[in-house]
Design goal:
This is Molecular chaperone DnaJ. The protein is 51% helix and 0% strand. By secondary structure, it is mostly helical. The chain has a domain of 69 residues. Helix 4 runs antiparallel to helix 5. It is elongated, with a radius of gyration of 37 Å.
Length: 200
């Protein structure tokens, strides 16, 4: 996280103080003009008429002016000054991607890049498009079968996996295509028996 500089710390940069002064001055002027729209003429008691006053000669210099706006150049100068000072204080040192390529700039567009990045960063399980979940489950299926002791349970797991793969292929909800193949139940049961025979 960035180290926040204390407001009470003295600021020795005259450029930043000048830019901040201009921004604060214009902001205060705009706020005062919004809060004080002008004084309405209040009539005196009934029957009392104020003497007619001569209308003043209009003065071009005294003509009311609209609120002054802070120039974009002043705002840009202030922002640049604050960033330069933060760099000198080292607040941008040792950032997570310092000196590394930005992830995701591979030249190919993946519509689910944000979802994959969240799942990978947060190490979430059981979330995501069916294509991703089935692909992950397919990689771990042999280990799951090896933990089973009953052939009937192994066959049920394989049948359920195949049914979900076929069902995911039929879905037209968008997302990445389902490329996970189904498993041949008899072949996988034979492999399961062979692995159990080696570990027995």
């Amino acid at each position: 996280m960035f180290r926040r500089r204390s407001r009470s710390a003295p600021d020795d940069d005259p450029v930043r103080r000048a830019a901040q002064y201009r921004v604060d001055r214009e902001t205060a002027r705009e706020a005062s003009e919004r809060d004080d729209p002008g004084h309405a003429d209040v009539p005196g008691p009934a029957g009392d008429e104020a003497p007619a006053a001569e209308s003043p000669v209009p003065d071009d210099d005294a003509a009311p002016r609209g609120p002054r706006r802070v120039r974009p150049e002043d705002r840009a100068l202030y922002v640049d000054t604050v960033i330069d000072q933060a760099i000198r204080r080292g607040e941008f040192d040792d950032l997570p991607l310092a000196g590394k390529p930005i992830p995701g700039l591979t030249g190919t567009h993946d519509p689910d890049w944000w979802l994959k990045s969240v799942i990978e960063r947060e190490q979430l399980t059981g979330l995501g498009p069916p294509a991703m979940l089935l692909k992950q489950e397919d990689r771990e299926l042999d280990d799951r079968l090896d933990r089973e002791l009953d052939e009937t349970t192994v066959r049920e797991i394989l049948a359920d996996f195949n049914a979900r793969v076929v069902d995911a292929r039929r879905q037209l909800l968008g997302g990445p295509p389902v490329v996970t193949p189904t498993r041949d139940v008899e072949h996988e049961v034979a492999r399961w028996r062979a692995r159990r025979g080696r570990t027995a």
